[in-house]
Specification:
Blueprint lengths: L5 H7 L7 H12 L84 H4 L14 E2 L49 E7 L1 H4 L3 H11 L5 E3 L21 E2 L27 H6 L6 E5 L2 H5 L4 H18 L4 E6 L11 H19 L6 E5 L6 H4 L9 H15 L4
Parallel strand pairs: 1-7, 2-3, 2-4, 2-5, 5-6, 6-7
């Protein structure tokens, strides 16, 4: 208090002049009794609590409760009245500024209304487009071109992705989450004479049966067995293999084949092949005749796209396994090895652009480890029994874990 001289009081040990105690002492000395009654308040401090006759202070409008005033004494106006109901906005597990749900609630003056930026939905990370799985032989150094052993393996695909990695999830298959069909798995072997007129399909069927993968149904408009050296018991020969076919014809481009077979070699074949079928799995090795004619990826990949788009209209969950095609050398008229390699290098990028979670596109390396000199027939184009065995094994490795 401003009129208390602490220094003088400490020296004399007497009440300071003018203080309440001083006045009381003078009164006692003069009259011998208490004569003053109002010296309890200090200057600048609130008065003592009023007597019973004095009305109690009423709360301000900001804190006064609604309804009739209670008969009980009202708390002092400086005591905050806390609203027992929760605030209008919910509080997250960790509030701004580091407060946690266990912390005491903030006073009303500390509550700040959230801004639009605080309440606006925060952008969520967008899922990345799925990358194609790639399967093939485990030995990338076994590839050869023109039958020369020890030739370099197929170069890396677009974006540096290896063309021939170890199959995802082990050597038995790929990292594909299947959509289970209601009945047996409908598998469509699709392509040219490598599919139609060799023992690839028969060997693949036998491998699946021997592995207990019997819930399968090969499908296609063609019924030819296509194999003479081994035909397993109960072999399902249905397929969509078309000898001499130039896949580029499906986009109404390229030369017509000279073979006189049962197709039109134009875009109308898409309807003939797929309108009445809805395969779950497609094993596509297509483009050998295109490479033979010198066509590159700019003509072949649009045909792949037309096939995939049509298949998805029949089954939106179709899984396409697309081969990097085997090497060929029918003659010395062209750089067939370079043409095939250029196509095979472009396939992974095309697959990545078109693969989805619902309908994966999986690249299967049929090129690496395939020797023209030992795996092809004398024509330099079609696989012999050894070549058929290699192709069938790669298909088996790609799909067996799905079935």
């Amino acid at each position: 208090m401003t009129d208390f001289d602490s220094s003088s009081r400490s020296r004399s040990n007497l009440p300071a002049p003018g203080s309440c105690l001083g006045l009381l002492a003078l009164t006692l000395a003069s009259h011998g009794a208490l004569g003053l009654t109002g010296c309890g308040a200090k200057r600048g401090e609130p008065e003592a609590a009023p007597s019973a006759a004095t009305p109690a202070a009423q709360p301000s409008l900001a804190t006064r409760p609604s309804g009739p005033s209670p008969s009980a004494p009202t708390p002092a106006a400086s005591t905050p009245i806390v609203n027992p109901s929760p605030p209008a906005t919910s509080v997250s597990a960790t509030a701004p500024g580091g407060a946690k749900p266990s912390d005491p609630p903030a006073s009303p003056s500390d509550l700040v209304s959230p801004t639009a930026a605080d309440t606006a939905p925060q952008p969520q990370p967008q899922p990345q487009p799925p990358q194609p799985s790639q399967v093939g032989p485990a030995d990338p150094g076994a590839s050869s071109a023109g039958g020369s052993a020890g030739a370099p393996s197929l170069p890396a695909g677009a974006g540096g992705a290896p063309v021939n990695p170890e199959p995802a999830g082990g050597a038995g298959g790929t990292a594909v989450t299947p959509v289970m069909p209601a009945g047996p798995w409908k598998i469509m072997p699709l392509g040219d004479s490598t599919t139609a007129a060799t023992c690839v399909r028969a060997r693949l069927w036998k491998k699946l049966q021997d592995a207990g993968k019997t819930n399968i149904d090969f499908v296609g408009t063609e019924k030819d067995v296509g194999c003479s050296d081994m035909v397993p018991t109960g072999f399902d020969s249905d397929n969509e293999g078309h000898s001499c076919y130039i896949v580029t014809n499906l986009t109404d481009q390229g030369n017509k084949p000279t073979c006189n077979l049962d197709y039109k070699s134009d875009s109308s074949d898409l309807a003939l092949w797929f309108d009445m079928q809805a395969p779950d799995i497609v094993l596509m090795h297509f483009g050998t005749n295109d490479a033979w004619n010198g066509y590159g990826p700019d003509m072949i990949l649009p045909a792949y796209q037309a096939i995939l788009d049509k298949l998805r209209t029949r089954n939106p969950n179709v899984q396409m396994f697309v081969a990097q095609i085997i090497p060929l050398h029918p003659d010395d008229g062209k750089d067939y090895d370079g043409i095939v390699r250029t196509l095979n290098e472009a396939i992974p990028d095309w697959a990545a652009q078109n693969s989805t979670d619902a309908s994966p596109v999986v690249v299967v390396d049929q090129f690496t480890g395939y020797e023209i000199s030992t795996d092809n027939q004398s024509d330099g184009v079609h696989p012999n029994p050894t070549g058929s065995e290699k192709i069938a094994q790669h298909w088996f490795d790609a799909i067996s874990t799905l079935l």
